[in-house]
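hey so u asked for the seq, here:
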Amino acid sequence: MTAKNLQIATVGGGCFWCTEAVFEEVKGVERVVSGYSGGNVPGRPTYREIGSGLTGHAEVVQVSYDANVISYEDILVIFMTTHDPTTLNKQGADRGTQYRSVIFYHNDKQAEIAELVLNELAQYYENPIVTELSAAPLFYEAEKEHQDFYKNNPGYGYCSFVIDPKLAKLRKLHYDKLKNN
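ran it, structure tokens below
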């Protein structure tokens, strides 16, 4: 058996509950942690502070994945095709800088791959991609109640109306990349 080659990807595409639920289903993903990154205020932010839109943080997920099973490029393609990367600071009814589309790269190779993916996918969208591409800042893990939110609250209205359609899109577009296919 080959040793795991664990890597980290940090992305934000609206509410972290959605992005977390998507990556929980992807083959090669070992762990997904919801959190906050990219802010400009000192100290550990809270969900309430982030929700104000005043801290500059984005709701993000840190995806720990086995690069022997899935590539960083595939992680980004899945990310870019399961949210709308053409809307500035919003996803559906969620509005504010905390919901921006963002890729926080952890090294030069990730930055290079992210730029390639953004350029390659641009042709498939009617509007320009506005996804922010920045070096990974500090990551703050979100409060316990925000971890595994979809898994723990599948009947919650937001899950039914917002997350379920994203999961359907994932299953349609990336069936070959799912854990349970």
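The chain has a mean pLDDT of 95. The helical segments are 16-24, 47-51, 72-81, 108-122, 149-152, 157-173.
lmk if thats what u needed
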